[in-house]
Queue: 3 jobs
Job 1
Amino acid sequence: MNCPMASRSRYPVYAVVLMMGCFILAPSMPVAAESYEEVPVINGGTLTGTVTLVGDVPRAKGYSLVTFPDPIYCGRISDGNGWRLLQAFNVGPNGAFQDVVVAIEGIEKGKPFHFKKPRIEAVDCTFNPFTTVVRDRSPVEVVNLDPAMHDIQAYETSHLGPRVLFNRPLPINPRHSRESAENPNYKKHFPGEPIEQEVRMTKGRRVFVMQCGFHAYMESWAFVVENPYYDVTKETGGFRIPDIPPGTYRLVVWHPQIGAPKEYDVTIQPNKESTLNIQIEAPKGRLYANESMNEHRFSLSGGGTSQIIPTVELQRY
């Protein structure tokens, strides 16, 4: 039987992360398992399901491009009035909730844990993917495909507040000319030299966040996993976790903007597929200090002849 465990949540504590004047609530996590043993899985089962957001999708964060570097290049994705939007909730038809981490906790022995280091790309002044997973004491790779300079600021969170993990600039590929960042019609992407950095989390912390020091609307979040039994929801909101040793476990469902992770009991039967469809209530009220606005207070007009033209994507509220 699958049932919510809200009354005995193991994630009661929150940390407040201050980034570029914006407060972000991030849950402080319990201590992760220190070791995982790879063994043959006999009569393993599979867990599948979907994650759905119920209710209105929250408004996006809004950033006036006038106040950040590279407004013309980064403004190629904007609302047409000089504002860049960051929508943390990627929701498709019928509430399909994408970019949600679904992880089974407490499995200490099981299938091989061949963790492929995550690659985070800076493309069109966006960090992709927005949500992923990391493994403690393992590397992440970050690469810049833009002609604009980006700077990585990586943090971990807890009830004691944020701690800086690393801060490094992202090299630009020399094939980009200096003038390309001032051309709204420039759409070429050449990867600069990738940087690789080991993630070393403090004991008990499970949330990793990366932001560009020059462009605050560039964010990438990750959840620390301790075994190979996880997935990140796709466009349909679906997930699939195979080869699970039979037994009853705790399932954690995490997204950086839904508050405390949701928890469920899941029982895996030998050689069978179990299904768990999860509904998450959309947060209500104002989530961010810099929520997007319908009426704009600034634009680039009056500050010169340049205009911010969304030639890649016209964002909507």
Job 2
Amino acid sequence: MNDWDVAKNLAHVPFPYPRDLADRWIADTLERLDKGLGYSLAIERDGALVGCAGLTLHNDEAELGYWIGRRFWGQGFGAEAAGRLASWALATLPLRRLNAQALPDNVRSIAVLRRIGFLEDGEGEAEFVSRSGAMRVLRFCATRDSLPQPPAPVAAPPSAPNILLVAACALIDPDGRVLLARRPEGKAMAGLWEFPGGKVHPGETPEAALIRELHEELGIDVTAACLGPFTFASHAYPGFHLLMPLYLCRRWTGTVTGREGQALAWVRPQKLADYPMPPADVPLVALLRDFL
């Protein structure tokens, strides 16, 4: 950090950068982590500190920042670390968007932000401690839609739409709450909430697919007799058309657990609309809320 070529591009870093300030900063990052105000993570390779990447949280938005030590420039560490952190944040935290900024002459940082899916969002000013004053900055933002997405299913010819059959289930507990699962990082539409379920394999019935998926994803056992057909969704996504029957289930054995690392939430019917969902799931919410 005690390098002018690093410090000059960081708004909150003084120059020179004294050793005791590093100790205070590390202590502060742990305190902010405990309070849920931000994440400051080391970028490391073979035991050597490459740099840092972090998030500062502001309600449903977060500011992304990072720096790379001079001897590691040009090796792709900034894009890899910042991109990974951005993807994780939007898939895991209750955030609507990510923000970032860069000085107009900081071409490396601008290139990194564009590469990982950030879009330009105007200009502004920011106080730079190392430069003892306000500087013009370019602002950037990213949402789940702007970040790179996993490839979608291959589109079929226009004369033969690619129909993707997915079975979903609204698990309802004794208190009338409905289970939602959050799509984990690495999947399309990561960070959005949905009804548990999955693809129906060739030769498989929707009920059999749900029994399999609920066991694999949640660790519970369900019988076909406990799955009640409720309604369905039909939605055109780029490259394929989704057909998704939704079942209701009030009885199962086992304890509901996110076996694939996905976040789970038991939600009151009137609160379902507060959770961002994939477009195909959204029309199901009103029907389910009115029924329950």
Job 3
Amino acid sequence: MTIVATRYGSVRGTEQNGVRIFRGIPYGAADRFLPPVLPDPWSGVRDAVEFGPVAPQYGEPMWRQPVIGPYFCGGRQNELPAVRHGEDCLVLNVLTPRVDDTLPVMVYLHGGGYGSMNGMVGTLADRLVAEQDVVLVTLNHRLNAFGFLYLGGIFDELSVGNVGLLDLVLALQWVRENIAGFGGDPGRVTIFGESGGGMKVLDLLELTEAHGLFDRAIVQSAPALERFTIERATADAELLLANLGIGHDLAALCALPANRILDAIRSGGPHSYRPVLDGHTLTGRENARDVPLIVGSTKDEQTWLAGDPALFDLTWSEVVPQLMPRLPVDPRPLVDFYRATQPYATPAEVFFRVWGEYRFRGPAIAVAERHPATYLYEFRYDVPIEGGRYGALHTAELPLVQRLVRHPETEQLSRRISAAWAAFARTGDPNHPELPRWEPYLPHRDTMLFDLDTRPVRGHREEERSVVAQALRQPES
């Protein structure tokens, strides 16, 4: 077993498929609803062989879902233990091929929006670490009410919100201060995340506190950022306090068992959590436009997310009425465009395409257009889940980036995309010998299409992009 000294004490790791792994290392501590602080130091050597606590949340871990769990874990879902929930969840995991080097560091931010999930699945990415010579960090942080309930509109002493994002800042500070002991280069830190993790990457691009703590960023399938105003966030806080029946009693709120708060969320809400523009942490202004980016989405983002099998059997008369409540813009120009340009598409295919373009591809392109030195991709491999009905579903590329290969035909695709991510972490340029030449998105609107036949395209779906961009600018009808 390998022992590494950190600023707070020494940790003893173990091995996993030829790489060294350290689990459950504390990077901070926090009282409920307050910004995090540095962890307490320890004496002696701390065993880092078991996972630390996961943020309180309800629902089963993704890898326990029988349909998608095997794909997203590369068939290794049984290697993950049962989760332990706890508010002392400010812990991280480190995978490294060796501790006596200066390797690029990749920090993975898990998905699940701002309300669920954890960093455990990412620790299965030992093939990525071994093959690409990178150090990988995954982490847990506070979620839902514990990380994103804004109470500053009710209690003045809690005016600094977004403590779940401040947890991420503290984790990145830990990486800068300690990763050299694990073989990592603190001057080459790349943050990457999928879905909610991609949203957190975009958040960190804005947080002043995070400036200078990472050097490159990868945003995978992030929806358009939705930030709550103080007024909206305060209304949500009032709703939860009413559901709990404790009024404006902060001491009582902080003394409640975590499960009591989760039960109140589940039964009465609020059910959606977002960062708040609190004027302290988030102001709506980006601070890191000079950070090199990879940004992208999948071809069929909304199929798996829809959650309603009946949507796969829509008729043409149902498409627009189904889209109306899901989009803040009039969907008819987009529906008309797809019906005219894709005459063989079914109503369901057009429905999912319009919805996905609005929520994912459009926002990804918008990020690429306002950031120089951005590489844009689209993932197009149709995952053979339930006969392939979901196509290239939301987050479909994530396991292949992590070298978690469930289907043998994706082995080369996985090698290409994981090597591109690692090359980007190493130099800021994703190109490597196994990948066709990938140019930045601007000035010619280049896009890398990741599929069994990976290829770059100039002006990919350009007419479609223009129509979508125009639709996003229209006022709500």
